[in-house]
Specification:
about 20% strand; three-stranded mixed beta sheet; Arc Repressor Mutant, subunit A; homodimer; DNA-binding; about 50% helix; Dna Ligase, domain 1; binds zinc ion
DNA sequence: TCAAAGACGTAACTGTATAACGATCGCATT
DNA sequence: AATGCGATCGTTATACAGTTACGTCTTTGA
């Protein structure tokens, strides 16, 4: 995320939290910034290392901030990578899907109605009530596919 | 999994491995049995504890067996739970989806063509080539929903 | 029979996440 | 200003998950 987008994202987070009457504290803001600044998903301990520069910190500091940011929908957790990524549209809560490239590590966040619908239908058939759908597709992005093709 | 189903599943695994010309060794068979015998997904260290009874074992023992069983499609890993579960139809390789109940911990394995299709379509739109789709829906199973309803 | 590959034992280690407890901060009420 | 209370934070320790590295033994096929 470039500097300009980052500034905008943080400003948006500020105003969202103000609207909701919740406190985006310095710690939380810092962790959010670190997550968003990264081009790729970042692990909790990577964040911890950066938070440690210029201040003491321990795992719970980071995990508490991440848990709160997750609850606010400002970041997402990628279960398959044990890593975190900034949400691209935190205004409204949503069940998103992720395309994760094993080649370059890039991640695309989708909000695909067809996927959500098919999951909902499958769940309904068995009387299952979904609360948190986790959809993470590992594979190869188009850039990485192209590179491979050129290499041959 | 009841005793009868378990015996059948192990026999099926035996014959599958024979067909494939791979070796279902005693260790692997034991881990498979422990995973299948459990009614719920089991963690690697739970398995380790059980393997330790009557024999020495360390983490690599269990992880090697699990990796092999995963490669053979005899068990699945649930990324959101860091736990393992026996496959309900290991005859053919497949991309399955899981409905995981947060109430009782039960898991249903689906093989839903509509879900797989919508994932494939969404990926194709962006030129992404899926290799391993992970679909795990957390929620409440019908039994647990019923219980809650009755409690009110 | 004799290498080569596969499977296993063992020790140490890295990485991910949580429990528990006390101190502190922000804010409303007295 | 002082009090009280819930939310937040610091700190230590620990639980849980997974890997690296290396040596030994077993199976298998030439
Ligand atoms: Zn999002
Ligand atoms: Zn890529
Ligand atoms: Zn399966
Ligand atoms: Zn249930």
């Amino acid at each position: 995320m470039d500097e300009q987008t980052l500034t905008a994202a943080l400003a948006r987070a500020e105003s969202l939290c103000a609207e909701r009457g919740v406190r985006l504290t310095a710690q939380r803001r810092r962790v959010l910034e670190l997550v968003c600044r990264a081009e790729r998903p970042v692990g909790a301990y990577e964040i911890l290392d950066q938070v440690r520069d210029g201040g003491k910190a321990a795992p719970p500091t980071v995990y508490r901030a991440l848990d709160w940011l997750l609850a606010q929908g400002l970041v997402h957790k990628l279960e398959t990578l044990h890593a975190y990524i900034g949400c691209t549209h935190p205004e409204h809560p949503h069940a998103s899907q992720f395309l994760i490239c094993s080649g370059c590590g890039c991640v695309a966040e989708l909000e695909d109605a067809a996927i959500a619908g098919s999951l909902q239908s499958a769940a309904e058939e068995t009387g299952f009530q979904p609360s948190r759908p986790v959809v993470e597709v590992l594979g190869t992005c188009s850039d990485c596919s192209d590179k491979r093709r050129n290499d041959r």
